[in-house]
Amino acid sequence: MTLSDALHEAARRIDRRDASVLLGALLGCNRAFLAAHGADPIAASHCAQFAQWVDRRAAGEPVAYITGCREFYGRPFRVGPATLIPRPETEHLVEQALARLSSQKWLERRAQPGVLDLGTGSGAIAITLALERPACRVTACDVSPAALAQAAENAAALGARVAWLESDWYAALRDRRFDLIVSNPPYVAEGDPHLSQGDLRFEPSIALTDRSPDGLASIRRIVAGASRYLAAGGWLLFEHGFDQADAARDLLLNAGFEDLICESDLAGIPRVAGGRLG
Ligand code: GLN
């Protein structure tokens, strides 16, 4: 059997692109290599492993949990059932954070800006910020010890320095203040049909929904607590759901934030909100 035969057979049961991502991950090569080497034979052991992976995908398991890896902001992150799979939308949150961390005002203010990532999951946001802005001191919390273990493994593999803390949002933080707080919290409303569809069925529900009727309970806590943990003039930036931009804005305004931002993702959906503490 050739690589192309294996892909062809798999594509009868699962998405063709998923099939080539899985086979590429299994063989340690990219899709261009697969396309160019379709006539190469596939080893029996690879063939058996590929068939198992195709079965898992056909049963709905996310590709990233099968390969154990997902790229975020150009770097590979290990992911597993303890953490949300990093999404491309969240790269917009990272971009907004990076923009704040390169402004001249910040650099003048602090030699080492303090950054806090709330609900870090796989660590994708915290690790990316730590690697892109090595002058920052990044702290990241999560309520899940399993997620923190995964995040620490990612940081070690990618050579990032981040302080990890088990904490229910701000609960375990002492009186330290940060220059920037970022978060991609759970924001899917309880009972949203998406929770029982596709990849979301396999992801930790604690990372997707806070079980509130409007999905805003975590965002409310994050916004309400931010003033205690932000330095004067510090920024809060967070990701939110497709219909939560107005609510996010009201929460920020009521909590005394200024210079509010509302950034859309590539699909044109408002996705990132934030502001500067006046
Ligand atoms: N954007 C994700 C989704 O709906 C949810 C991630 C989150 O809750 N932070 O697939």
Described by the principal axes of the CA atoms, the overall outline is elongated
CATH class of the largest domain: Alpha Beta
Radius of gyration over alpha carbons? Answer: 20 Å
User: Quaternary arrangement of the chains shown?
Assistant: single chain
Under CATH, the topology of the largest domain can be stated as Rossmann fold
Give the count of structural domains.
2
**What is the helix fraction of residues, given as a range?**
40-55%
Tally of helical segments? 12
CATH superfamily of the largest domain: Vaccinia Virus protein VP39
CATH architecture label name of the largest domain? 3-Layer(aba) Sandwich
What structural class results from the helix and strand content? Answer: alpha/beta
The total of beta strands comes to: 9
Q: β content, as a range?
A: 15-25%
Give the H and E element order. Answer: HHHHHEEHHEHEHEEHHEHEE
What's the average pLDDT? Answer: 95
Strands ordered across the widest β-sheet: 5-4-3-6-7-9-8
Major sheet summary line: 7 strands, mixed
Kindly, what is the distance between the CA atoms of the first and last residues, rounded to a whole number of angstroms?
65 Å
Report low-confidence residues grouped into runs of 5 or more.
Answer: none
What are the distinct ligands in this entry? glutamine
